[in-house]
Amino acid sequence: MVAPSTYFSFVVFFFCSSNFAFNSAVQTTSPFKKIYAFGDSFTDTGNTRSASGPSGFGHVSSHPYGSTFFHHPTNRYSDGRLVIDFVTETLSLPYLLPYRGYKGNAPHGVNFAVAGSTAINHAFFVKNNLTLDMTPQSIQTQMIWFNKFLESQGCKGTVSSSPECKAVFDDALIWVGEIGVNDYAYTVGSSVSSDTIMKLATSSVTGFLQTLLKKGVKHVVVQGLPPTGCLPLAMVLASEDDRDDLGCVKSANNQSYTHNVVYQKTVQDLRKQFPDAVIAYLDYWNAYATVMKNPKKYGFEEPFMACCGSGGPPYNFEVFSTCGTSQASACSNPSQYINWDGVHLTEAMYKELSHMFLSGTFSHPPFGSLMDRKQHV
């Protein structure tokens, strides 16, 4: 078992670090013309660049990242497309421009998600001496970026305050991807409790959502945390007797599950505060767990082993020889793997999760009802 201090250092480092449609009508009659996305590396489509991002991110700009679909690295933490990419395809929109690559014109939206982001403000981790100064971004940073973007469009108020604001938000879907995993990673081996992180993280994201809703947005999608105990990183570093019915790390999965229970309660409260808005919660934990219970049903032969990494079975993951480094190599059939690099998922898994969110039963309310609501506004 790796010492807690080593685990802490690496987790902070690493975490920071075919088209489909659920029905053809959505493709041709989508009421959403733009998306504004937020989150961390599970949603980041290029804000983490080796040249301008925090130190330690160079590996995502290296082969074989991006090899399956784009055929070159795009600073996405996968071999290809992410959930947000499949969402844009489903809505017949172009892939979202990362905020750091935005040049002033964004008719189809902008992606503000950046790898390494925390839900809690970075200052908290600095104050508690829990930072390696590699990932200063948080969900608050993304709100600052979003406000700067709004100002660049002439919007300095709410949807009802000016035609410029109405133009920005009109026909827009707000997508708040998974955020919070990094907060727990920072505190591994520290005296800060998981309960403290859970309370602060959910409170922070709730405040973020309230700020968006007060601007007048009406259609919001939020993702819960995945079962982090099923990631090869967690499997390698945890004790072998810390396992659940999925074969994953029990303590980590319990932590992310409990976080989601609290998060869903805050979403329910927000629905009451903003009855004119539709807030859809995507159950990342149970969607992922459903695949883990019967991976072959979904075409996966390797539920635990990383496609890209080093060390071979059972996890193909070594802490200091991760995907993108010279010591690592990638499998020839990533579509048969759930996990890409030890922490992030393959395009095949993201595609399956997208289908489960958009046309399955893991969106509450169903994504289709959010679409219908928008069409009839």
List the helices and strands and how they pair.
Elements: H1 4-16, H2 24-29, E1 34-38, H3 83-90, E2 97-98, E3 109-111, H4 122-127, H5 139-152, H6 163-169, E4 172-176, H7 181-186, H8 194-214, E5 219-223, H9 232-237, H10 250-273, E6 278-282, H11 284-293, E7 302-306, E8 308-309, E9 329-330, E10 337-339, H12 347-358, E11 363-364, H13 367-375
Helix pairs in contact: 3-12, 8-10
Quick summary of this structure?
Helix content is about 40%, strand content about 10%.
Structural account:
This protein has a single domain (about 35-290, about 345-375), classed as SGNH hydrolase (Rossmann fold), CATH 3.40.50. The protein is an alpha/beta fold and about 375 residues long. It is globular and about 60 Å long. It has helices at about 5-15, 25-30, 85-90, 120-125, 140-150, 165-170, 180-185, 195-215, 230-235, 250-275, 285-295, 345-360, 365-375; strands at about 35-40, 95-100, 110, 170-175, 220-225, 280, 300-305, 310, 330, 335-340, 365. Strands 2-3-1-4-5-6-11 form a seven-stranded mixed β-sheet, sandwiched between helices. A two-stranded parallel sheet has the order 7-10. A two-stranded antiparallel ribbon has the order 8-9. This is GDSL esterase/lipase. Pfam families: Lipase_GDSL (PF00657).
